[in-house]
Amino acid sequence: MERTFRRRVSPDEVVSPELARHLTEISRRIGRQVGVLVERGGTIRNVVVGDASKLDLPDVGRLRGGVGRFRGLRLVHTHLKG
Fold it and tell me: Domain range for residue 53?
């Protein structure tokens, strides 16, 4: 899991193929959903591990980044079925 924090995603991609494979491998190995919160710049901010049926997200605050802006985070996560 620690290696997951060191990965980056290009700002113009939702997820890189390498990160998608990495998350899928971890999820299959541990039998749980796995997700990452990625900042606009491509830095992984949080790694989240759920159970087989759900993923509980950390509190990222309620405030937006500014008027007319979102927080700048995207969630990429696995499902075990599918």
Answer: 2-57+66-77
Nearest 5°: the CA angle 59, 61, 62 is 125
Determine, yes or no, domain membership for 19.
Answer: yes
pTM of the model: 0.83
- What digits encode the pLDDT tens for the residues 30-69? 999 999 999 989 999 999 999 999 999 988 876 566 666 6
In a domain, 82, yes or no: no
How far is 47 from 77, CA to CA, in rounded Å?
10
Name the band, by pLDDT with cuts 50, 70 and 90, for residue 2.
confident
